[in-house]
Amino acid sequence: MRSTSSSCASGWPPESAGRRISSSRCCRRPFPAKPPIPPREAAVDTPLTKSPLNVTEIEGGRVVRVALDAGKGNVIDRGAIAALRKTVVECRGRSSCRALLLEHTGPHFSFGASVQEHLPEVVADMLSEFHALARELLELDTPIVAVVRGMCLGGGLELALLADRIVAAPDAVFAQPEIQLGVFAPLGSALLPRVVNPHVAADLLLTGRRVDAREAERMGLTAEVADDPSAAALTWVREHLLPVSAAALRHATRAARRAWQPGFLAELADLEAQYTGELMQTNDAREGITAFLEKRTAHWEDC
After folding, report:
1. Other CB atoms closer than 10 Å to residue 157's CB: what's the count?
2. Among 2, 7, 51, 219, which residue's CB has the most CB atoms within a 10 Å radius?
3. Residues 63-107: pLDDT tens digits?
4. Beta strands per DSSP E along 30-170
5. How many helices (H) and strands (E) does the chain have?
6. Confidence of residue 165 (pLDDT cuts 50, 70, 90)
């Protein structure tokens, strides 16, 4: 989570600072009356930290656009997760909403979840909150369209996989590199085999290798590759989702997810328990995360 700190000089100068007062009593003159103090302008609240999201309504409120705006790489930390969960809650009350566009500022969708928050002491809380976000997005019953440019790695790919449709730019790159840090991707392990062929999913999860936009399209990871993915995604929403009933669309979205959602939620709970209760007890999990943070090569003990 990003934080903002500031420092300032303490204490104001005394009122007499800068005045010259004569030592001659006969020359003393009374100080002129102080001019009236102008009324203070109404205070404006200024947030100490910048929001990690930009949320706007477009198409007359029928589409909610959520853009990750968390700085370089759009790293997904607990602050970003909390902001996303708050947005999901706010979307529930929009009966006319027909789509949620998940986009990003900057050249990259996301470098992934905060590695710092994967340390054994804090990872359980982070995973619990991230997986709660996944459940809440799926229970929103609103079609989700993700727009991806640049890097979409780790937790960033897991977030994009929650979308019903991914539209990618030609420069998009996808990967689940957790294995290279001595861990695995719980959410990705539950989602990828439901999106692509299980053998393809295993390849991505076991190797952590990167795939470009065209390979991702061939394997079914993305639905479309477009030079302007934001425009392409919005065109698809306008052509296919805006003309239909929002009520019918909510039911259709729920029905489309019914075949896999219950099993997915059960698997996700099991994978989270495996990650926090078993994997994070290994020496290599701690070593992999620590080595990444220290920018050095990990030394595996295989235990």
Report:
1. 29
2. 219
3. 999 999 998 899 999 999 999 999 999 998 889 999 999 999 999
4. 53-58, 63-68, 99-104, 144-148, 151-153, 165-168
5. 10, 9
6. very high
CA-CA distance, 101 to 118, in Å (whole number)?
Answer: 28
Please, which residues bridge with residue 303 across strands?
none
Predicted structure pTM score = 0.83
Contact 186, 127 (CB under 8 A): yes
Task: Quote the pLDDT of residue 19.
Answer: 39
Query: Can you list the domains of the chain with their CATH numbers?
Result: 53-228+246-293 (3.90.226.10)
CB neighbour list of residue 142: distance below 8 Å, 6 or more residues apart: 91, 97, 98, 99, 100, 249, 250, 253
φ/ψ (deg, to 5) at 117:
-85, 5
Kind of pairing between the strands at 63-68 and 53-58: antiparallel
Q: Where are the alpha helices (DSSP H) in the chain?
A: 78-92, 123-139, 155-161, 186-195, 198-207, 213-218, 229-240, 246-258, 261-277, 283-293
